TrEMBL record:
It catalyses: Release of an N-terminal amino acid, Xaa-|-Yaa- from a peptide, amide or arylamide. Xaa is preferably Ala, but may be most amino acids including Pro (slow action). When a terminal hydrophobic residue is followed by a prolyl residue, the two may be released as an intact Xaa-Pro dipeptide. Residues 1-23 form the signal peptide. This is Aminopeptidase N. The keyword Transport does not apply. It is an enzyme of class 3 (hydrolase). PANTHER family: AMINOPEPTIDASE N, PROTEASE M1 ZINC METALLOPROTEASE. Residues 308-454 form the Peptidase M1 membrane alanine aminopeptidase domain. Belongs to the peptidase M1 family. Its cofactor is Zn(2+).
Length: 471
C-alpha cells in the first residue's frame, strides 16, 4: 500500500468494469524489487493494500494451513506476477478464477492469472496453502521457531515466507487481519488489536487486526500457552502483553520489564512525537533464540533478554523502532542504520533518564572502549553489507553517529530533526540520503563530511562523538 486505495467494496466494483485499455502487451512483474542487498525480495508490478490471513495451526505436529487473501493493485499491465512464499500452495485464484502457479525458487511463486491485469486494476488474490513451517528451510535456515507448545514467526528481514505469501519488502506496507484457530487452551498472538475470539468444536479462533500500514517482516504470529495481560495506558492506548507459561526463572524479569511498555512509550513520545499506532504490547514465547524484534505494536522478546534480571532497555529499543523502522520504513535494506542507530540511541537516552549514565558518558565509552585496530571500525553503519546488517557497529557506531550529529548541530535542531523526520515520513519509507538532506535543511549546516565519517568511513573516526579526541 504505497498510495491511496479504495475500500474493498469499491475495489470489487472497479474490477468488474476493468477493460484492458493499453495498446502495449502486458509483461511479467519483476521477481524482486531490486534491493541492493536482496535483489529477489519483494516483487514488481503490484502493491498490496491488505492481507487477510485465515489460518489453523496444530501445535502437536506443527501443521499450518489456511487461506491468504491479498487485495492488490497492479502498477503495470501485468501478464504474471510473483509472490514470496516457502510453504506448499494448493491453489491460487485471481479475481475468482484459478491461476497457474509455479514455485520458481525456494521462496518464489510465479502466478499467471488467466486474464492479464491492467495498470491500476485492483485484484483479489486468494492463496490456499498448508505446510510444516519448521521443516521448511530456505538457504539453510528457518525463521519459524518451534517451541514445546507451538511456534513463532519472527526474524528480519525474512519472516513472512514461513507463514503467509507476500510482497516481501518494507516498501510495500499493508493493513492486516490475522485470524488463527488453535486448539482450546492454546493462544495465538499477532499484531495490533485482539478484535475478537471464539471457541467452537475444540478450536479457539483468535482474530487480530492491524489498521495501520505494516511491513511484511513486522507481521508476527506466535502460538503457544500464553498468559495474556491487558491494560490501558494513561494516554488511552490498549496494551496487550503475552507471556509464555513456561518462562521459568525469567518470568519475573520479563514481566517487570514489559509491563513498563506504556510508561516507556509515553516517555518516548516526548522526544519522537505521538506514538504512530493504536495498540501496544510485547510477547515472550518459550524460545531459545537470543534476539528481540520490533514486530509492529507488539515486539517479540526472547526470554534470554531477561536472563540477568529486568531489561527495560530492550523495551525502549523495540518501542523506539515503532517510530524508526516501523512507521518510517527503510527504502532499502542497506539503510538499516535508520532503524538500529536510532533505537540504540534511544537506549542511551533512557539510561540518562533512569540515572544509569548520561548519553555523553555512554557515547564516550562506546568510542573509547574499542581500539582503532579492531575490526569493529571496518563495518560501515551506512552500508554494512547484508552479512553485517545486524553487526554491533550498526547499533553502537550508529548511535555514536547520532551523538556526533547532536554535538554538531546542538540539542534544539537535533530534537527537531528526530520529531520532524518522523512526522514527514510517517506511514511511508525513506533513505539515509534523504535523512542527510533533511538534517542539512533543518540545521542550515553542510553535514556530508560528518555523515561520511560516521556512517561510511571504514576506520575509526579521529574525533569522538562528543567532539573531543578521546570520547
Ligand atoms: N531489529 C532487531 C533488533 O535490533 C534485530 C533482529 C536481528 N535478527 C536476527 N535474526 N538476529 O531489535
Ligand atoms: Zn533494533
Amino acid at each position: 500500500m504505497r498510495r491511496t486505495f479504495l475500500a474493498p467494496a469499491a475495489a470489487a466494483a472497479t474490477l468488474m468494469l476493468a477493460i484492458p485499455a493499453s495498446a502495449a502487451e502486458p509483461t511479467p512483474g519483476a521477481p524482486g524489487v531490486g534491493d541492493p542487498y536482496y535483489p529477489d525480495y519483494g516483487n514488481g508490478g503490484y502493491d498490496v493494500a491488505h492481507y487477510d490471513l485465515r489460518l489453523r495451526y496444530q501445535p502437536r505436529n506443527d501443521r499450518l494451513k489456511g487461506t491468504a487473501t491479498l487485495l492488490v493493485k497492479a502498477t503495470q499491465d501485468l501478464s504474471r506476477f510473483n509472490l514470496d512464499f516457502a510453504l506448499d500452495v494448493r491453489e491460487v485464484r485471481v479475481n475468482g478464477r484459478v491461476a497457474d502457479v509455479a514455485a520458481t525458487g525456494a521462496h518464489e511463486l510465479e502466478v499467471t492469472p488467466d486474464r492479464p491485469l491492467t495498470n491500476g486494476q485492483r485484484a483479489t488474490v486468494v492463496v490456499r496453502y498448508a505446510g510444516t513451517p519448521s521443516e521448511v528451510e530456505v538457504n539453510g535456515f528457518t525463521s519459524w521457531h518451534r517451541t514445546p507448545d507451538g511456534g513463532v514467526a519472527a526474524n528480519e528481514p525474512e519472516a513472512a515466507w514461513w507463514w503467509f505469501p507476500s510482497n516481501d519488502h518494507p516498501t510495500d506496507k499493508a493493513t492486516y487481519d490475522v485470524s488463527v484457530a488453535v486448539p482450546d487452551g492454546t493462544q495465538a498472538v499477532s499484531n495490533g488489536v485482539l478484535a475478537s475470539q471464539r471457541s467452537e468444536a475444540g478450536w479457539t479462533r483468535w482474530n487480530w487486526r492491524s489498521t495501520e500500514p505494516q511491513a511484511t517482516y513486522l507481521a508476527t504470529l506466535a502460538v503457544g500457552k500464553f498468559d495474556l495481560t491487558t491494560d490501558t495506558t494513561a494516554g488511552g492506548l490498549p496494551v496487550l502483553n503475552a507471556y509464555s507459561r513456561e518462562l521459568g526463572p525469567h518470568e519475573g524479569a520479563a514481566r517487570a520489564s514489559i509491563e513498563r511498555t506504556g510508561e516507556v512509550t509515553e516517555w518516548l513520545e516526548g522526544y519522537f512525537g505521538a506514538y504512530p499506532f493504536h495498540a501496544i504490547g510485547g510477547y515472550v514465547p518459550d524460545t531459545d533464540t537470543g534476539y528481540a524484534l520490533e514486530t509492529q505494536t507488539r515486539p517479540f522478546y526472547s526470554p534470554r533478554k531477561f536472563q540477568h534480571g529486568s531489561n527495560v532497555s530492550v523495551v525502549v529499543h523495540e518501542m523506539a523502532h515503532q517510530w524508526y523502522g516501523n512507521s518510517v520504513s527503510l527504502e532499502r535494506w542497506s539503510d538499516i542504520w535508520l532503524n538500529e542507530g536510532f533505537a540504540s540511541y534511544a537506549e542511551w537516552m533512557w539510561s540518562e533518564h533512569a540515572g544509569e549514565g548520561t548519553v555523553e558518558e555512554l557515547a564516550a565509552y562506546a568510542y573509547d572502549s574499542v581500539p582503532a585496530d579492531d575490526d569493529f571500525w571496518t563495518v560501515k553503519p551506512g552500508d554494512p553489507g547484508p552479512e553485517n546488517q545486524f553487526h554491533g557497529a550498526v547499533y553502537n557506531r550508529g548511535a555514536m553517529a547520532l551523538q556526533a550529529l547532536r554535538t554538531e548541530i546542538g540539542d534544539r535542531d537535533f530534537f527537531a530533526v528526530l520529531k520532524g523526520w518522523q512526522r514527514k515520513h510517517a506511514g511511508g519509507d525513506a533513505s539515509i540520503d534523504e535523512f542527510v538532506a533533511y538534517t542539512e535543511r533543518k540545521s542550515g549546516e553542510q553535514l556530508d563530511a560528518l555523515f561520511g565519517t560516521w556512517l561510511f568511513q571504514p576506520s575509526k573516526p579521529a574525533v569522538g562523538p562528543n567532539g573531543g579526541a578521546g570520547g
